[in-house]
Amino acid sequence: MGRSPEAPDLDIPGASDPDDPQRGCGYRPMMRARRRRVRRVVGGKSASIGEWPWQVIIKERHLFGVFTSYKCGGVLISVRHVLTAAHCATSSDVRNLFVTLGQAIASQENLQTIPVERMVVHKDYRAADFDNDIALILLTHRVVFSRHVVPICLPDSGDDFIGFNAHVSGWGKTAFNGSFPKTLQSVILPILPPEACDQMYSKSRVEKTVREFHLCAGLEEGQRDACIGDSGGPLSVRRSNGRWVLAGIVSHGWKCAEPNLPGIYTNIPFFRSWIGRAMILTRSNEEAAGILGYYFPKRVEYLPQKTFDPQKSTIECGSRPMMRRNLRRMRRVVGGKSARIGEWPWHAIIKETSSSGVDYKCGGVLISDRHVLTAAHCALGSDLPNYVVTLGQADFRQSDLRSIPVKRVIVHEGFESLDFDNDLALLELAQRADLNENVVPICLPDSEDDFVGLGAYVTGWGQAEPGGPLPNTLQSVRLPILPRDDCDRMYSTSRVDKSLREFHLCAGFEEGQRDACDGDSGGPLSVRRNDGRWVLAGIVSHGYKCAEPNLPGVYTNIPYFRSWIMNAIDSIPARSRKRIRCKSSWRSNRCSCMETEYHHDDSTCAESASE
After folding, report:
1. In CATH, what number does 328-564 get?
2. How are beta strands 45-46 and 185-192 bridged, if at all?
3. Most confident listed range (12-26, 299-313, 455-469)
């Protein structure tokens, strides 16, 4: 599976070991079952784009790049690292190798192609027996993660996959003497106990013992297997939490899909420590994040969060976003009404400037005269110096509105771009906002506040109907905040693979009809307290379609992140924080109080006190 079919098989143990003075002696290689190290998927099915987003194709250039050939499969495990079989990495000049990512159909275009910078082959790899058949590839530059390019999760060293069903995927032949397919193939195989495989090999008179660094997978009757062209590709297992983990790498076997000849895979849990050491040899600090999860660029500041669960840092890996219902991260208000000027004075518009003009990007919410909250997914992927925030706008025909540049972005370090977990960012404005009747910060809730069962208002500039144009006026709609269990039940009814966590709020109706959608991300979900003051319950994060039955929207739960927000503000140099003076004409129910951040008539406004 991992090299070109023309390459010779090395069936003599020790033949390639220069330290063995008797290398190759005492064996009768022609009397042994022919072992093939280049393998393909047999008895499988064609994969759809994004179904196996960690699958990598390793290719080789010939004649100074005039020709290229398929060499092996591989598996993406970080932003710059690919695992493959050692036998795929030992017979080529690394300068001629490159990888292709995200490909599931041979005719696909606009694919990421990245040269190989370095390869680390396990020092104990034996070409004759394929012992320790593992290698790590370092790419010349970072992969751009997308809906069809995602790293797989690595298992723990103590994980045991025997008895699990696993999926092997690859571009190998679909029959032993067949041709290479036009689409990526995959097949389900059971991972078998070593003694069961040894027994099968004995029946087939194959001289093979499965060792601790092997996994064995297949069926006693054959029919399904990997074969020529699949070496180095992944053997993937789906955990109960929905995430995929790398159990093995296609190594070698005998013929393809024959009875009593299961395939042999490199056992990844056994090599977990080796992989970690190899990555240390090849990575920089920023690349180290790849194996743990999402990589964040240096130009955005990330605030450490003591309450963040580090076990969730790998959620970026092992998900298959293309295999879920279309997750929409830019959302709009459906079934709402036009807002009056000053009705939602904390609503902010985040825009991006360029040589071609100014483009609407996301919503946001003003929480002080220098700070705006928004969704984390609104704060990545663009040039920070080109961000501006417009405040007080409820009608696109309004004039004399001021746009303030963004000075700094602090993104929650636990943000996961595939599942939108911890979808929160704080923007620091370059200048103070001019607070007035139409520009007022909203109050932040206490960390223990519970808004389930309350009616809330979501506001935004998103489309008023799916696929329609953006409205000319700010829209708002009232939605009930629902218990997480109710939302999980609705998602299950709609066959959506989604479980709400403690950092989520869910709002909407079982019958749909009212919702947020394209264009509203980052905007506020506002709740009116009994004292008449408005508090921020949530921020528009993501959802599935718009205003459809049994598909309520998901919002970032602000009480859960109250401490993070305050820590983020405290991390900004003190000279950037200024006092706010509340005007008596509008201070009664509008001005937000955040500890000593707000002042009125030179006296501090205590937290949760009236201005």
Report:
1. 2.40.10.10
2. antiparallel
3. 455-469
